[in-house]
Design a protein that fits this description.
Nucleotidyltransferase, domain 5, alpha/beta, 5 helices, 20% strand, 198 residues
Length: 198
């Protein structure tokens, strides 16, 4: 936890901090949300007993230096897809060391991912167990769900992906660098687990 907070508070001069995670599954179903409706006539959600279109997964990266969100949507979220995302990030910032904050999901810890990162100046910084709230990208996923998906009923993945793309384009044009994570939170004063008296 302290390592992640230190990267957030004091970005390294030799590179940039990027938070990475998966969002989904993105299935095709009506999503509840708030909308204006005539009194006494609520909008009905259709039944989806079968969902033959399958699910998609969003793999995303949040650059703390600029606040921009980069993503790709894939049918699966294995180590192969994760490594493809890392390669795209490496291409985007070729001369900098990347500090990639991610959780302990097994594809993130795959041997081939680790060896490729070691050879390409990428340091994987893993979150503590049950510490996904420390990943700054989680708040971006909450906003994505609220602004792009709530109150929708997309009938195809292409339609849903277009809604996500439109939101991310708008978001990236109005973004600012990320700073001041959890200021004033009790985690900033946490020192150690309390010990039991003998």
């Amino acid at each position: 936890m302290r390592r992640v907070l230190d990267l957030y508070d004091h970005p390294p001069a030799d590179g940039r901090v990027v938070c990475v995670d998966e969002f989904g599954p993105l299935n095709l179903q009506p999503r509840k949300g708030k909308a204006w409706r005539p009194h006494g006539r609520p909008r009905r959600l259709r039944a989806t007993y079968t969902r033959p279109a399958g699910v998609m997964h969003m793999l995303a990266a949040l650059d703390l230096t600029t606040g921009r969100l980069f993503y790709r949507i894939r049918a699966r979220k294995r180590w192969i897809e994760f490594l493809d995302l890392l390669k795209a990030l490496r291409t985007r910032w070729p001369g900098e060391k990347l500090y990639v904050v991610c959780d302990n999901f097994s594809p993130h810890r795959h041997a081939q991912v680790r060896s490729w990162c070691a050879a390409n100046t990428i340091e994987l910084v893993f979150l503590p167990t049950y510490g996904s709230w420390l990943n700054w990208i989680e708040s971006e996923f909450a906003a994505l769900r609220y602004f792009a998906l709530n109150g929708t009923d997309h009938r195809s993945h292409a339609e849903q992906n277009a809604a996500i793309a439109a939101y991310v384009r708008w978001r990236n044009t109005h973004t600012q660098p990320k700073a001041n994570f959890a200021v004033g939170s009790p985690i900033r004063t946490w020192t150690s687990y309390p010990t039991k008296a003998a």
